[in-house]
Amino acid sequence: MKRCFVILSLLVTLPAFAESGDVNPMFGADNENSIALYVGQGTGPGSLFKLVDPFLWEFEPMTNLMLQYSQPVSVFRLPSRINATFVQNLGYGHDSGLSFMAIGVSWDVAFLQWRGFYIGAGIGPYMRDSRDRYVESRLVFGERVFIGKNIGNDWHIEFFTQHFSNGDFTEINRGFNFTGLSVSYSF
User: Fold this and answer.
1) What percent helix, strand, coil does the chain show, rounded to 5?
2) C or N terminus of the chain, fewer CB within 10 Å?
3) pLDDT tens, 72-94?
4) What is the CA radius of gyration of the chain?
5) E-only strand ranges, 77-175
6) Cα-based distances in Å from 45 to 41, 62, 132
7) DSSP, res 55
8) What residue ranges define each of the domains in the chain, with the CATH number in brackets?
């Protein structure tokens, strides 16, 4: 419970330290669209805390590929983006039964930006094409934490961790966790 309180407190206070300005750090000046490719490695099933605690990661034979289209928005005056995402999870070896495709929408908010770097989090629902032994339902929610860097006005890279689960709507809900890199082009 203390861990949840600390994380929530940080997320609430971080906007006070954000740089002011009209440029969304996830898009650059005068850009209204973005295409991104995310590549992530499976870090084991389990709770949402695996997003922020690398000591809990258990690398396993799963690769997650996401293609994302985004547009800039703002949430409580914070720079944000709304995303349409196609997801392909590839389980291999003994985890080949954990492969799935999904589509979803999500919202990401940049809480802190400084000298081209930004830190944020996002959430959204996704609909999968199958059920498996990790998550019994086809509807899952994706939570993401990311640190990004602007490479010029149009290119951005991000280190991210992402968790997919169904919020305990079903009895089987081990969840999927991933960490990886993304590259995006804004135009």
Assistant:
1) 15, 55, 30
2) N
3) 999 999 999 999 999 999 998 87
4) 16
5) 78-91, 100-114, 117-128, 139-151, 155-165
6) 12, 11, 12
7) G
8) 2-186 (2.40.160.20)
